[in-house]
Input
Amino acid sequence: CKTQIYNTYYIMKLLHISDTHTYHDLLQIPKDIDIIVHSGDCSNPMNKIESYKEIMNFIEWYKGLDVKHKIYVAGNHDSAIESNTLGIKDDFAMAGIIYLENDFVELEGLKIFGSPLTPSFGQWSFMKDRSKLDGYWKNIPDDTDILIVHGPPKGIMDFSYARDGKLESCGCKSLRNHVLSRIKPKLFLSGHIHNCEDIVNAGVLKLSSHNTWFSNGSVVTDGKFGKLSSQGNLFEIDENNNIIPLSL
Output
């Protein structure tokens, strides 16, 4: 792991966004945030060169935000990142963006782990068979404070319609088991499953029997790209690393 360590203690604000799919320019980023996290899918196409162009456009936008710490975790539509087309992973670092791929960073007294992996669906990027994902989740440190995974745990803001029209819970069951039973992060950030038709996945949720806040930061609705359905989710982190959702 390449671990980067920063230490400053004060009340901070964290903005979580995801699945911008080239529409990042439509976001209204608050001026007083300290950390911004994008949990994947700034791009769209499978074609690596087209994906590269879209991701470079996003990097230029992300770099220009007046935010102290910027984090990016890739998603299944970020094909140029999976292939590292033209060394694009280095472009994140050169732009001052922390890129996490099954790795962690220690930032402002918080251990933050990021993974782009999701269960297989079609021929998209960073996907693994559900039976193999547990081996990856085992490597997430127990003391992770903020866990960023492109896709959600099973049953938590992960509902969509399957091709046969039936409602389906698309998240990863193994990830859910690790998050709820072992890791128990203060904050879990994902996207991947957008709002669709009459289903709202974007937003924040805390299960009654657990202390983790779950955030789906997707900002688009399936079939309605070009108009944002969310501006992301905002959180306050106090000096004791307690996390409180805020309204945008």
In short: The helical segments are 48-63, 79-82, 88-94, 130-137, 173-183.
